[in-house]
Amino acid sequence: SSSSSSSSSSSSPCSYSSIELDLLGMWFAIVKILFCAGCVQPLPALLAMLDPLRQSQDLHRTAIRNEHAYYCTVSQILGKWDGPVTDFKESQPASSSPSSPSPSSSSPPPSSPSSS
């Protein structure tokens, strides 16, 4: 008979208040957003800061379980990563992402039909 909405349970899954859990969930979401955006450079420092806060806590039994799960996935991926940790945008050569051709490099506009 466990209720996930009951925070006054005698066997609380963790020692954090609901506000503290919300803040921790926000940080986990920031890790997710940075990872998904390819901005991985700040992640090792964030993971080092957040990891001690999740130790010995049953966060998988709290309202932030989904954020925690994604955080753990990112942490495991970066733990196995053997390449350099740089921003995705920095690793892309500037000339490799052509957007739309500039007006100076496009062909001239078609001439209008002339009536002779």
Summarize the structure.
It is built from four helices and no strands. The chain has 116 residues and is mainly alpha-helical.
Model description:
By secondary structure, the protein is mainly α. The protein contains four helices and no strands. The protein has helices at 18-36, 43-54, 65-80, 88-91. Helix 1 (18-36) runs antiparallel to helix 2 (43-54) and helix 1 packs across helix 3. The protein is elongated. The N and C termini lie far apart (90 Å). Residues 1-10 have low confidence and may be disordered.
Which structural class do you get from the secondary structure elements? mainly alpha
- Average pLDDT for all residues: 78
Total helix count? 4
Distance between the termini: 90 Å
Principal-axes geometry comes out as: elongated
Largest sheet: none
Q: Low-confidence parts lasting 5 or more residues at pLDDT below 50? A: 1-10
Record the SSE blueprint.
Layout: H1 18-36, H2 43-54, H3 65-80, H4 88-91
Helix pairs in contact: 1-2, 1-3
